[in-house]
Amino acid sequence: MATDRSHPPTSREYDDVQLSTPQRGARTLTKLALTLTLIGGGLATAVPAQAAAGPYERGPAPTNAALEASRGPFATAQTSVSSLSVSGFGGGTIYYPTDTSQGTFGAIAISPGYTARWSSLSWLGPRIASHGFVVIGIETNTIYDQPASRGRQLLAALDYLVEDSSTTVRSRIDASRLAVAGHSMGGGGTLEAANDRPSLQAAVPLAPWNLTKSWSGVRVPTMIIGGESDTVAPVSSHSEPFYSSIPSSSEKAYLELNGASHFFPQTTNTTMAKSMVAWLKRFVDDDTRYEQFLCPPPSGTAIEEYRHTCPSA
């Protein structure tokens, strides 16, 4: 069982961590079946070592430089979604990898905050998509929508991606590997969506705001990113209690950015983007190559605090 701990954990603590999330158990069985198939076919000795990689790994082996760059290894394209062509949310913009040679990709829906539009977070769309994801940055039904409504809209946007989006987009998505994220009330909506749909593979609330403080029902691997100097959703009354309320049996992490205000997601933030991509790759793609950026916990002048359950294979 995963155990909540603040840095620095001991090496023994790392050895004690075991994942219990049902989705990852299913993926383990998938990997085992693949291995048995290869052995049964007499291919075990002929397949190179890289063939043991997880079935959802996409792109080259990650490096610090690659995660800190403004774009990942995949070229991307984008398309607009009119509010008139969807139901349950206000349209938005889809970003997707143009590569069709590596199979399907996981998908993530991202919500802006109170009174904000997608343009306030739009730098995140191509950045995340370029690491091998389909991203929809949504416009909300109204700019005043509260967290519960934003959570429902995030889920409606995911449903649109996998059921009703264009063939070009839909054909690139693995409908079993979906995630949500959002800023401020969109971050509160991210927690709402994760609580309402436990089949999601990951959630990343950014400076989340919500009047509900307990999220004991969340089972989705969740990384909360807060700002030390946030006066709109102070971490002491929002991000920290949100994190603490999620059960330690669920994978979770809390990253607090040194000196950051409530609006840190609205401008390019390398530390946030690096951690966000690593979390999505680890849990949406089940790509253990990204564990090195999450555990042992990251450190540096940009990070005020990091808490975690230390994901482990």
TrEMBL record:
Biased composition annotated in UniProt, kind: Basic and acidic residues: 1-15
Single GO MF annotation: cutinase activity
Statement: the UniProt record of this protein carries the keyword Secreted: yes
Location (main, coarse): periplasm
Catalytic reaction(s) noted: a butanoate ester + H2O = an aliphatic alcohol + butanoate + H(+); cutin + H2O = cutin monomers; (ethylene terephthalate)(n) + H2O = (ethylene terephthalate)(n-1) + 4-[(2-hydroxyethoxy)carbonyl]benzoate + H(+)
Region Disordered, residue ranges: 1-22
E.C. designation(s): 3.1.1.101, 3.1.1.74
Enzyme class: hydrolase
One Gene Ontology cellular component annotation held by this UniProt entry: periplasmic space
Domain PET hydrolase/cutinase-like: 51-311
Source organism, top-level taxon: Bacteria
Pfam families linked to this entry: PETase
Keyword hit for rRNA-binding: no
Keyword line: Disulfide bond, Hydrolase, Periplasm, Secreted, Serine esterase
Location of this chain's protein in the cell: Periplasm; Secreted
Family under the similarity heading: Belongs to the AB hydrolase superfamily.
Protein name, entry field: Poly(ethylene terephthalate) hydrolase
Organism lineage string: Bacteria, Bacillati, Actinomycetota, Actinomycetes, Streptosporangiales
